[in-house]
Every structure is written in structure tokens, then in C-alpha cells.
Write a structure and sequence with these properties.
The protein is α/β, with parallel strands linked by helices and about 425 residues long. About 50% of the residues lie in helices and about 10% in strands.
Length: about 425
């Protein structure tokens, strides 16, 4: 290596030296607070079982399910059949499929399914044929047509566990409940990448429950989330210019409540489970995570006035400041890794402290996962055999992959890139 090259590397090591020291603090700050709260909740059931009619938002009432679809003919019938199983005589379900200008046979399959339903049955199905405008616009079309006071979004590649819909909407008997998050589970987690996503989703349910207890939950999963329809409409519905309409919807609801001097409750219902598809290829995973992170960055910037806003409570005073750290973490984390590798190569760094920290993270990640598995003890679908191994390996592999996958997101957010992401399901996987 030339003298100029060595000088350049020395400059990098000197100026980015704080990143290695800061990395452990960033990880701890992002994880340990909600994890500690979630741990105090333990594995206690979220709701009493069986559910009674008095636990519904309106006695004898039902729920409106919004399904946005764009070229989903491979999986839409499977999703509709799952929703049909949720409806009963005392719990009618209204499903509104908003076809966002599909060019395949999605609309025809929905119409065929609707023709098989009894006219006086507990499930009603409506199809909205809309011009292609994006997922937010499709959801808004379905929202405007919804009849019930609580609406639930379900992705077109998603199945629901038994009574999942009833469990998710039950908290709306409390007037302060504005939205509720279900537990999204990766279906058929075969292979290294999907098993890592299974572990990640499992832990997310536990962590979301902790943030719900703190009054600071910032996301209801679009694959399975519930909203009080009137408040969502007053907040402007779903954004039509966002990559992550489900994420921004919660910010809109919190901003509305803060402006009106109201407190918002957004519980996480761990036993309201929905099974969805995760990307099985590296290219699909990178595309998904780029879209998610770019949408997060755009939303955080758009609602920057809520950061440190006292009238938002712990959401603005605790959660959003940590999200600022989260926004910088992919860059900081990879710089720290680069610094470590360069330092080891040049003999200026001892890798043992960071390796010891990563080993500690592996143990804590495995502990969090096992805690989350305990919370999901009623799940009829077994976890993959090697899931604990994936949890142990996360700080050494998957965490860095996620950081690397979202680097383009900064450009996407700056350019306000918009994209519709259909489900990842294939016809071979249906019914497995």
C-alpha cells in the first residue's frame, strides 16, 4: 500500500473512531427499553378466552376488512377463504377488496368467490374496481365504503388464525383505543433468510407489546392491523404518496389526537395472529427493506414536529428520539464494521471487545426470541427447528444484512420514490 493510501486509511480510522464505541450503545438504546417492559408483561394472555359478544366494539356488530390488491390472483382466494372462517352469526364480517387496476385475473377471482357466498350469510364481499393509483389510494377507496366502526387491513397474501379478527377488534370497547396491532407471523419459514424473518417477526410482536405498554407504539402492521374508522377518516385516511402507508397512518392518528388534547391507546394483541409471506430471495428482501426504510425516513421527516413534542407523551419524548438514532444506524453500523476491518488489517484495532459485545447480543437476542415464543405458545403452527440458532446468529449476520439492504433507501426517500409491492406468494406455496 502506498503512503497516501495508508494516510487515507489512518484519517478514516481517526475520524470514525467513535463509531465502534457508539455501536453497542445504539443497539442497547433501541432494544433494551421496550424489551424490559415487554419482559414485565411476561407470557400472560392478551385477552380472556373465549371471547364474548360484549367484548366487541358494538354489541352484535362486526368489522369491515380492507384488502388492497394489485395482481394478486395467485393468493387472493386463499385470503378470502381465511376471512370467511372468521365470520359468524354474531360476528358478521364485511370484506371490501379494492382492486388497484390489476392486469391479471384478480378481480374475476374475487367476483367468482363472491358468487359462491350465501346472500344471508355472515360474510359479505364487495369488489371495488379502481384505476391504478397505489396501495394508499386503494385502501382509502375501501375505507370510504366501509360500514362498520372498526376497520381492519389485511394483506392479500395473508391468512388469519382462528378468532384472530375478533381478538384484534375486541379492545375497541375502550373509547381511547384508536388502533390495534396484530401479531404477524412468517408462513412456511424454510431456509436461512425466511427463518431469520420468522425470528424477527416473532420478536417484533413482543417488542411492540412493550411499546404499547409505554404508550409509544409507532406502527400497526399493514398485513393485520385495526383502526377506529371515524378517527382514521378524520386524520385523512391512508397517505397516497408514501411507501409505507400503514406506518404513516399511525403518525397521522397521533398528530390528530395531540392536536385535540387526547391520549391514544394502541394495544398489541399477541394472540391475534396472521400468517403472511416473507421474501424468499435476497433481491426481494433488499427491495422490501429498502421500501420499508425509505418510507420510515420520509414519515419521520414529514412528522418531525412531533419529535420531543410534549403533547404526544412518550411517543414524542421517548420513541421518536430513538427513531432518530434508528435512522442513522445503517450508516453508522456499517462504518463501524468498516473501521473494525480496516483496523484489524492495519493492526491498530483489537477486535475482541466488539466480538465480545456481539456474543452478548447473540445471547440477548436468543433470550428475547425465547420470551417471544413463550408469548406465542398458543400458535398452532410450530416454529422452525433451527429458529434459536438463527436468533443466536443474528448479530453476526442478519443484522448486518439488514443494514446493507437499506442503503439505497436514503436515495429513495430523497427522491420520494413510490412503488407497489405485490405479495411474494407463489401458486405452489398456497395451501402448504
Amino acid at each position: 500500500m502506498t503512503a497516501a493510501g495508508i494516510a487515507g486509511l489512518s484519517w478514516v480510522l481517526h475520524h470514525f473512531a467513535p463509531t465502534t464505541a457508539a455501536l453497542p450503545a445504539l443497539f442497547v438504546a433501541l432494544d433494551l427499553v421496550p424489551t424490559a417492559v415487554a419482559a414485565t408483561l411476561g407470557g400472560a394472555p392478551t385477552l380472556a378466552s373465549p371471547l364474548s359478544e360484549s367484548s366487541l366494539p358494538v354489541a352484535g356488530g362486526g368489522v369491515s376488512v380492507l384488502v388492497a390488491a394489485f395482481n394478486e390472483e395467485a393468493c387472493i382466494l386463499h385470503t378470502l377463504a381465511s376471512l370467511q372462517q372468521q365470520a359468524t352469526a354474531t360476528f358478521p364480517v364485511e370484506v371490501i377488496v379494492a382492486d388497484d387496476g390489476s392486469t391479471d385475473g384478480t378481480a374475476e377471482r374475487v367476483e367468482h368467490f363472491a358468487a359462491t357466498l350465501p346472500t344471508d350469510g355472515p360474510l359479505s364481499l364487495r369488489l371495488l374496481r379502481l384505476p391504478h393509483s397505489g396501495k394508499g389510494g386503494a385502501l382509502n377507496g375501501a375505507l370510504s365504503a366501509a360500514s362498520y366502526p372498526v376497520v381492519v387491513t389485511v394483506d392479500a397474501d395473508t391468512e388469519l388464525d382462528a378468532e384472530a379478527l375478533r381478538r384484534l377488534v375486541a379492545p375497541f370497547v375502550e373509547p381511547a383505543v384508536t388502533a390495534a396491532a396484530g401479531a404477524v407471523v412468517v408462513r412456511n419459514p424454510q431456509g436461512f433468510l425466511l427463518r431469520h424473518q420468522f425470528v424477527e417477526y416473532r420478536k417484533n410482536t413482543l417488542l411492540r407489546r412493550g411499546w404499547s405498554a409505554l404508550g409509544a407504539l409507532d406502527q400497526v402492521p399493514g398485513a393485520f392491523g385495526a383502526y377506529r374508522a371515524a378517527e382514521l377518516r378524520r386524520a385523512g385516511g391512508f397517505p397516497t404518496d408514501s411507501l409505507t402507508e400503514d406506518y404513516e397512518a399511525i403518525f397521522r392518528l397521533r398528530a390528530l389526537a395531540a392536536g385535540e388534547g387526547r391520549k391514544v391507546q394502541i394495544p398489541t394483541i399477541a394472540d391475534a395472529r396472521a400468517y403472511t409471506e416473507g421474501p424468499s430471495t435476497l433481491a426481494g428482501f433488499v427491495r422490501q427493506r429498502t421500501r420499508w426504510f425509505a418510507g420510515f425516513l420520509s414519515t419521520l421527516f414529514r412528522f418531525r414536529a412531533l419529535i420531543f413534542a410534549r403533547n404526544t407523551g412518550s411517543f414524542g419524548l421517548l420513541k421518536l428520539p430513538l427513531k432518530l438514532v434508528d435512522a442513522a444506524l445503517p450508516v453508522v453500523g456499517l462504518l463501524a464494521l468498516l473501521q473494525l476491518l480496516l483496523g484489524v488489517a492495519l493492526g491498530t484495532h483489537n477486535p475482541l471487545p466488539l466480538l465480545a459485545f456481539l456474543a452478548f447480543r447473540a445471547l440477548t437476542d436468543a433470550t428475547i426470541y425465547l420470551r417471544a415464543q413463550r408469548l406465542a405458545a398458543g400458535d398452532p403452527r410450530p416454529a422452525p427447528r433451527l429458529a434459536v440458532a438463527n436468533a443466536l446468529a443474528e448479530p453476526f449476520a442478519f443484522a448486518w444484512l439488514k443494514m446493507l439492504a437499506v442503503q439505497r433507501a436514503y436515495v429513495w426517500a430523497a427522491r420520494r420514490t413510490e412503488t407497489w409491492e405485490p405479495s411474494r406468494i407463489s401458486p405452489v406455496e398456497i395451501g402448504n
